[in-house]
Amino acid sequence: MHSILGILHFDGEALDSAAWHSLVGASAPHKWAAPEPARIPEFREWKNRSVALGYRPSPSARSKHEDVLPWVHDPTGHVITAEARLDNRRELMSRLNIRKKGGEEPHDGELILRAYLEWGRGCLDRLQGDFAFALWDPRRRALLCARDRLGAGALTYVRQHNRFALASSSEWLIRLPGLTGRPELTSLAESIDWRFPALGTRTTCRQEVQSMVPGELLEIDSEGRLSTSIWWALELTEPESYATEREAAEHFREVFSVAVQRRLEPGVDAGLLLSGGLDSMAIGATSRSLRPAPEPLHSFSGVYDSPDECIESRSIMSLVASLQTVPHLIHVPSLAGEPGRDDLIEIAWGQPHPVDNSLLLPALCCLAARSAGMDVMLYGAAGDIVTSAPHMYVADHFRNGDWRLAVSESFGASRNHVYFRSRSASWLLARFMMSAFLPEWCKRPIRKAPFYPARDPAPPPLMSRSLYDAYQEIKSESGPSGSNGERLPPEGSNWNHQASGLSGFGRIGRRFGTQMRDPWADVDVVKFFVGLPLKYKIRDGWTKYLVRRAFRDRVDKDVIWRRDKNHLGWRFTRELMIATAPFVRDTINGGLSDVADYVNVDEVNKLMQHYDPHDDNGPCQVVFDLVTLILWLKG
Predict the structure, then answer these.
(1) Is 108 labelled as part of a ligand binding site?
(2) CATH 3.40.920.10 is held by the domain 245-385+498-566
(3) Which overall architecture, per CATH, does domain 3-174+209-230 show?
(4) 323 is in an annotated binding site
(5) Three-class DSSP category at 100
(6) If you write DSSP's letter for every residue of 246-297 in order, what string do you get?
(7) pLDDT for 224-283, tens place per residue?
(8) How far apart are CA 72 and CA 135, in angstroms?
(9) Is the pTM of the predicted complex or chain greater than 0.85?
(10) 330 φ, ψ (degrees, to nearest 5)
């Protein structure tokens, strides 16, 4: 992934070279991104008295266009740095009357800047694709920063008393003089217990650093006046009408095919992060139809040493055969071959991060892809959010008067729904009917009953009381979604959390010099599912029903009609914890004092007395998260 940086000093104050160099140094590529020093791209920068913009291309970038960022429009003095992949280049070139020069097309950053010069802020509505950019407007003496509709391009920022700084990663900004790097408390709570999700639309893991939200424009002038506005938010529409299920499936395949095609540039080697699930299956099946055999399609997966003993591994091997991919397999628990156990250890403990360490298997696959010469990795992290339906979806059928379908779906959910199939149909019927018909004043006492699941979890044993109280205070001051009343893109805080996940994959990509692209995080795909009738989202209890229907003739039925959501990531975590057991204990014993404000030290000590990384039912993940937290805070 490419990286962008910027600093603006207020009131004409001269650029602080030390601060700028600290930011540039923090963004230096990891050794895995460019194992050959000759392949490390040159960092490029533009500076005037008070402003600096920088650009670090990915070592995988093959385009000559990237060499000209930051790009200066000489007639006006406007400057831009951008991480961008525009889908409508031809349309923009036509409307802006831009011609190729010497057979070369303008790069995406130049197109964005020329669009701004033509249409001002309205240019954002005309840009299609993934982007994050910073643009210096000398006429207004203001810096404009923007993020794409769904947040595929990451952009974080910090405002100090005398300057504003931006970067693709919050971890770089904390290297600026005057920042402490202290953790953001709700993100910290989430790293200790997942039932306490990070709050706020701009939250990063660092309290002093904020993230731009998807679809946002930020402007700050040379006097330090800052304003933000949401330039795009998904509008809910009436469901589309399809004559048949086949018509809906064909429409989905068309939309998704375009999304995948946009991310497969000619002449660029792209790999596929292949799990045994539906999201990566859909990407793989579509990629194969766009690149028919014998053209190679490289897939990267983690599999169990004995695939027959693991449904995820069986599904992966089935997809490898059906899609005729060139498989690159990382075996667990043996971790034989490359990448191997030593790589796993360095990925986890060499540069720990609360979000990134939850992506150990994708990180190993990115390392394998880098070694195989892949420039781009397709993945499907956004699929769950994009295809989701309301949790109490059957209640909607009741409200719409379709009782027969509601009853049928209750029975189907008890058989096939990934979360409901442990419940009886009668229990589900009662629960859905209560949700549909009971007035709110009747629901309140039921929610307080002992048998009803608590909405607010009790203080977790491992979380300190002070952190728990701080979390609850922040939550009470926030809006219903923890957003402080801000308007959000699709699915509110759910999509904001997903955008954080996309940023995590982006950081993994930068670490290994691989451009991460998710076709599910495509505006047209999102719009399709927003307008998809509920009966096609879930049918007979099957989630992602239309995805299953659209590809059922292309892959094995056992892959299409899987009910579980088992993944192999936890096996890699366990092998890591076994391999580094002495280091884990030493880190916790020596580092508990560093996290005493956030964890219950007595409970952690009790936990460690009985901890055994070989125990499948033990607290291996909890201990892993604690070690990650300690190492990350030590920085």
Answers:
(1) yes
(2) no
(3) 4-Layer Sandwich (3.60)
(4) no
(5) coil
(6) HHHHHHHHHHHHHHHHHT--TT--EEEE--SSHHHHHHHHHHHHHS-TTS--
(7) 999 999 999 988 888 899 999 999 999 999 999 999 999 998 878 899 999 999 999 999
(8) 10
(9) yes
(10) -110, 115
